[in-house]
Design brief:
With 582 residues, the chain is α/β, with parallel strands linked by helices. Helix content is 38%, strand content 18%. The protein has a seven-stranded mixed β-sheet with strand order 9-15-14-13-12-10-11, sandwiched between helices. Strands 2-5-16 form a three-stranded antiparallel β-sheet, with no helix packed on it. Helix 1 runs antiparallel to helix 3 and helix 6 packs parallel to helix 15. The protein is globular, with a radius of gyration of 25 Å.
Length: 582
């Protein structure tokens, strides 16, 4: 069978190589953008005639609510939401662009050597007889991967050989060809502190007593279902799970799906289509983006967590209607996340709910990272702001993070869930959740709700909140720039300079600390970062070890860009009471 992509040497004529090298003109454009951006950045700073970016944005909400068993039923308390938005000094911005410029220059130089036959070409290339075909990848995607990503590829796809708990074991691997291929050494790196997994409540565990019910279900039902929900895959465990999810969220009904990504990408097209308008946050997860694109609806993007920009789009949508025809939109759906996984920020839910009521729109809330992780009893951002679950039209979440399992759910009114059951491609064609996974979700959720006869689940929620605030406070004191809400267990630490991405991850691993580093295109070009995910299973000793390593590495790599040295609100971190103000 013919293969389109093969690994081979490829030697082309010098004129073609010279033509390719003329792309060096892109560097001139790149440098122009660098100076323009730096100039605009300087003008935007406080004291330079611009508005600038502050260290902290504070939003104060007066919300009518109190809680009894986690359900809002009246009363009053104030909620203060603090978002960190400190900007790096201008020289960091300059160094970041210079870093990409140098990397781009040497990338084109290496390409010139490869196409000239002076250097071996080891990456996948088009077959000679198919050289006139439309390429599978865009040129820049190929360029970025072979010249930049490959150089630091050892920081991703690391093979884990244990449960991803607070510590894990990892198979050691090395590369003999600059990360084009890897080989295992046979050695196992033990007791690596896990700062990258979404194990927020610590339910990813192998304790025999903890997973006893999961083992029982595995013995009774087996590992797989081998059918869809609408055929022979609708088990009593699935109905038990969905009833429990609805009870946990305080809504009428819920439906569970086997894959979190597909919960968004396959269900959004069932809710909206041609003639509908989707207003999506610019930093929404790719599953939301894919679902919106598959729906066929018109998509408009609003700035991240910017309710003024969102209201402007809503007002224009109501006034002008659909393009050309000027007919009213069939539906307007707002897509937001509870906690944004790359920023650590929490959605400004009260304002967005107010806007969706004002303009008669619908709200789709993705609580993948917030369910179980925030709120006095772990019920997500709806509880965090003391709001009624009925304020949100479509509640979505996943079981892959706080509950240590896999899959996702859609919850809300019974009419909504019944519609999803019959119109969702994921419900119709996807295989059901396997019974042991369903039982894992049930046991974790019952623990959080206290239905297992103890308060261990609630203690995990509180421990996560304590660990989160402690870790964020210490990073501030050390002088790092971090993003996100003070209560968000997702903690992005800004690295900025591309050359420091690989060095940061490798040196942390050398200290037996596993971290996730993220760069372009997952983030903007100038905001490479390390993303820490805090867990209730992390002990204070583990966090202190990580902080000590970060302190040393921050000095070594010059990562302490923050321009303040003291915690901005130290009294917030000394609270020991989790009761809401009456």
């Amino acid at each position: 069978m013919a293969t389109r992509m093969i690994m081979k040497k490829k030697t082309l004529g010098f004129p073609y190589s010279l033509f390719r090298c003329l792309s060096f003109l892109q560097l001139i454009f790149f440098l122009t953008v660098l100076f323009l951006r730096c100039h605009l950045y300087y003008e935007a700073q406080p004291g330079n005639g611009g508005k600038g970016g502050g260290i902290l944005n504070t939003h104060l909400y007066n919300i009518q609510s109190s809680y009894e068993n986690g359900v809002a039923n009246g009363g009053s308390y104030k909620k203060t939401v603090n978002e960190h938005v400190e900007q790096a000094p201008m020289y960091v911005n300059i160094l970041t662009f210079i870093g990409f410029t140098v990397a781009t220059f040497f990338g084109y130089l290496r390409d010139f050597l490869r196409f000239s036959g002076l250097q071996q070409c080891v990456y996948a290339t088009e077959r000679e007889e198919q050289k006139d075909f439309v390429p599978l990848y865009q040129d820049f995607e190929n360029f970025y991967k072979r010249n930049m990503y490959v150089r630091i590829r050892d920081n991703w796809d690391r093979p884990i050989c244990s449960v991803p708990g607070p510590q894990f074991e990892m198979m050691e691997r090395v590369s003999d060809d600059y990360n084009w291929t890897f080989r295992l050494t046979g050695r196992t790196i033990k007791n690596v502190i896990n700062m990258g997994s979404y194990n927020y409540l610590g339910f990813a565990e192998t304790d025999v007593n903890a997973i006893k019910t999961v083992c029982t279900v595995l013995s009774k039902y087996g590992a797989g279902v081998c059918s869809t929900r609408q055929e022979m895959g609708n088990l009593d465990k699935h109905m038990e799970l969905e009833n429990l999810v609805a009870r946990f969220l305080g809504v009428e009904a819920a439906m569970a799906f086997g894959m979190g990504f597909a919960t968004n990408s396959m269900n959004i097209p069932a809710l909206v289509g041609k003639g509908c308008l989707i207003l999506s946050d610019e930093l929404n997860h790719s599953s939301l983006v894919l679902g919106a694109r598959l729906s066929g609806a018109t998509i408009r993007i609003f700035k991240h967590n910017n309710v003024q920009n969102l209201e402007k789009l809503l007002r224009e949508a109501v006034i002008h209607g659909q393009p050309r025809s000027r007919r009213a939109w069939k539906k307007i759906l707002i897509l937001v996340e509870g906690i944004y996984s790359m920023e650590g920020s929490i959605v400004l839910l009260p304002e967005i709910v107010a806007l969706k009521r004002k303009y008669k729109a619908y709200l789709y809330l993705d609580e993948a990272h917030s369910i179980g992780a925030v709120g006095p009893t772990g019920r997500g951002v709806v509880e965090y702001f003391g709001m009624d679950p009925g304020d949100v039209d479509v509640l979505m979440g996943t079981f892959t993070k706080s509950f240590g399992a896999s899959g996702g759910y859609v919850a809300g009114k019974k009419e909504l869930v019944d519609y999803i059951r019959t119109h969702s491609h994921s419900a119709t064609y996807a295989t059901s959740i396997c019974p042991p996974v369903a039982e894992q979700i049930i046991r974790a959720m019952k623990s959080v709700m206290g239905l297992d006869g103890n308060t261990q689940g609630l203690q995990r929620v509180r421990q996560l909140a304590e660990n989160t605030r402690y870790f964020r406070r210490r990073l501030h004191e050390l002088g790092f720039i971090i993003y996100g809400n003070e209560d968000s267990p997702v903690v992005p630490l800004l690295v900025y300079v591309p050359g420091k991405i690989g060095a940061f991850s490798r040196r942390m691993l050398s200290k037996n600390i596993g971290v996730v580093v993220v760069g372009f295109p997952a983030t903007s070009l100038t905001e490479a970062r390390a993303r820490f995910c805090i867990s209730a299973a992390h002990t204070r000793e583990m966090l202190d070890k990580v902080l000590q390593a970060l302190d040393e590495l921050g000095d070594f790599l010059t990562l302490k860009y923050a321009q303040h040295s003291k915690p901005y609100r130290p009294e917030l971190y000394n609270e020991t009471s989790y009761e809401l103000e009456g």
